[in-house]
Amino acid sequence: MPFNYPFPPPLPPHLPSRLSGVRVCPSLSTGECQAVMRNSTVLVNSSTSENMSNAILEAMSLGTPVIARDIHGNTSLITHGQTGLLYSCPEDFIRELERLLHDSGLRDRLVTAAKEQVTRLHSLRQEKDLLMSILEQAMQ
């Protein structure tokens, strides 16, 4: 399974020898990044602390399934087994990745539910309306 990792040059000297099977690419434009994400098998979010991840939202909207660490910011976007998969430790990650890779029905259900959720809860219109509401309240 190819693994693409955007990494700004220059690479640390020890890194290339440790990346067997990983393709390191330079920084990508938004369009290039979305194309890579759209064509990826899965988006993995391994953050140990993060608020709502735009990368997760982008992957969900592009139809790329997500496996993410079970932290508050990620659980605000992902319902385990419904809109993505969550893990707490390396063993959980391996198990969830294997489930996703071997169960196309699961993959299809996750992608469909995630896209519906992003459309329903995170559209540009909803973001704009929420921001306008906050600004109006702040001005009162």
Automatic annotation (TrEMBL):
GO terms for molecular function: glycosyltransferase activity. Keywords: Glycosyltransferase, Transferase. It holds the Pfam family Glycos_transf_1. InterPro entries: Glyco_trans_1 (IPR001296), Glycosyltransferase_G1 (IPR052622). Coiled coil: none annotated. Residues 22-116 form the Glycosyl transferase family domain. The keyword Transferase applies. This is Glycosyltransferase 1 domain-containing protein 1. It comes from Chionoecetes opilio (Atlantic snow crab).
